[in-house]
Design brief:
By secondary structure, the chain is mainly alpha-helical. It has one domain (3-120). 85% of the residues lie in helices and 0% in strands. It is found in: Cell membrane.
């Protein structure tokens, strides 16, 4: 692993984390939802963006900067899991199921859609 690789991932991660934080602040200040909307939004959007990136077939530099760095820090698997556990612990069974179906199913669907759209621009 070269220093250039680390810098690409680090720079992408820096901006992805800022974008994630900004999205969370926006959703938490401006909206009230039954589900954890900020995490849902960033994970679904991240799935679409990663699908586009992979479908487009970008080179290693862009994959490291945008895929691993930016999208990797923009999306959040650990927060998604924690919020799911909190829904379960609060006995919000329907919300728990809906949240998981949307995150997993929607994420896979949008990654596929992004991939197919990305392939159109090869």
């Amino acid at each position: 692993m070269s220093i250039f690789t680390l810098l690409l991932v680090g720079i992408g991660g820096f901006f992805g984390a800022i974008a994630r934080f900004s999205a969370s602040q926006y959703f938490n200040k401006n909206h009230t939802f039954r589900l954890p909307a900020a995490t849902l939004f960033v994970n679904i959007l991240g799935s679409l963006l990663l699908g586009l990136l992979i479908g487009k077939g970008t080179g290693e530099v862009w994959s490291l900067l945008l895929g691993t760095g930016f999208i990797g820090s923009f999306t959040t698997f650990s927060t998604f899991k924690l919020e799911g556990i909190q829904l379960h612990a609060d006995r919000r069974r329907k919300d728990f199921i809906l949240y998981n179906v949307i995150c997993y199913g929607g994420g896979i669907l949008l990654a596929f859609v992004g991939y197919e759209i990305g392939r159109l621009f090869v």
